[in-house]
Amino acid sequence: MDQHVDMHLTWANAFNDANRIEANLNENHGAIAIHDHEFIEIVVVCAGSCCHHHVQGEQSIGRGDAFLMRPGAWHSYRDCRSLTLYNCCFDPGILGRELGWMIDDPNLGRLLWSLPLAPEQHGMVFMHLPESQLGSCCGILDNLCALTPADITNYRPDRVGLLVQLLGVLGRQLPAAASQPKSTKPHPPTLAALKLIDDDPARDWSMQSLAQHVHSNPDYLARTFSAVAGLPPMAYLRRRRLELATSLLANSEHPVGEVGNLVGWPDANYFTRRFRAEFGLSPSAYRSRFLKARPLSKPDPAPSVKKS
After folding, report:
1. By the number of CB atoms within 10 A of the CB, which of 18, 179, 293, 296 ranks highest?
2. Dist CA 119 CA 185 (whole Å)
3. Structural domains of the chain in order of their starting residue, each with its CATH number
4. pLDDT at 296 (0 to 100)
5. Strands 21-26 and 7-9
6. What is the pLDDT of residue 167?
7. Alpha-carbon gap, residue 120 to 250, rounded angstroms
8. What is the dihedral of CA 226, 210, 269, 281, to 10 degrees?
9. Quick one: which of 175, 50, 74 has its CA closest to 123?
10. Residue 62 CB contacts under 8 Å (≥ 6 apart), including other chains
């Protein structure tokens, strides 16, 4: 990747096959310009150092540093010195399927939802791994790297299992929560609502309709969803729509107003306000910035969006 070109990475232009969980070891990692992704990325640094510029600011990172980025969170690397790191990337749709149960786990729920989706985090969460846990992560990632070229039909369960192990190690390294939940009892309506939103964020959901679909009281659903996801259902819906909008802006030629409509906001002005509040620039500026490096010979297809 040209370090002077801003880029939005889709699964198609970042990876070579249909796997939805990928891992790679990158030795002597070089500088990379500002970019974001349509997928979730985990980075674990095992050697060297660099200046990491990201949506929250700048920091020097080195051995043992790790971070998770949800779709739409941007970052770049510069001043790399013998930098070696692992990347593990996966499709956010997995959160509503194979990993949906994690929202009720005190550590994993914070790692994947409540911490990165907090307003001040802008889709990112950082942690530092002690040597013993760094070794565990590297071992898991080595196994996942070995499976990356393998046949997805035969090895998908292995990939999912290794991803769960990796997330488990990272979740245990999060800073202690300000207040621990009083109960870890699963909330089936919360999980069902999460799956509905992830499966069809463009649908005209209201608190009432969401609660009706999961056979729950709206007030109860709002409380339980906030307790495990870190934000209310309608706020989570807004975030998922914005994450989807980043891919549509970077990988389709739909006008900005139509992008807003496709993700569930027919009012183009409202869509623009929400997008600017979340990502710090307008949808048009985002498209101009991240479309520069889009290949002309093989344009990426726009992600599919369900319409009710």
Report:
1. 293
2. 26
3. 7-171 (2.60.120.280), 185-291 (1.10.10.60)
4. 37
5. unpaired
6. 97
7. 24
8. 40
9. 74
10. 45, 48, 49
Would you list the DSSP string of the chain?
--TTS-EEE-HHHH-SSS-SEEEEEETT---EEEEEESSEEEEEEEEEEEEEEETTEEEEEETTEEEEE-TT--EEEEEEEEEEEEEEEE-GGGGGTTTGGGGGSHHHHIIIIITTTSTTTTTEEEEE--HHHHHHHHHHHHHHHHHTTS-HHHHHHHHHHHHHHHHHHHHTTSPPPSS--S-----HHHHHHHHHHHH-TTS---HHHHHHHTT--HHHHHHHHHHHHSS-HHHHHHHHHHHHHHHHHHH----HHHHHHHTT---HHHHHHHHHHHHSS-HHHHHHHHSTT--SSSPPPPPP----
Q: Which amino acid is at 244?
A: L
Q: Which residues of the chain fall below pLDDT 70?
A: 1-6, 8, 13, 16-19, 96, 148, 150-153, 177-186, 228-230, 289-308
Residue 225 is predicted with a pLDDT of: 82
Looking at this protein, which amino acid is placed at residue 87? N
pLDDT one-digit tens code per residue, 157-198:
899 999 999 999 999 999 876 544 444 455 788 878 888 888
Residue 230 is predicted with a pLDDT of 65
Q: Are strands 7-9 and 32-37 parallel, antiparallel or unpaired?
A: parallel
Cα distances (angstroms) measured from residue 184 to each of 25, 106, 229, 237, 269: 35, 7, 13, 23, 40
* CB 42 within 8 Å of CB 22: no
* pTM of full prediction above 0.85: no
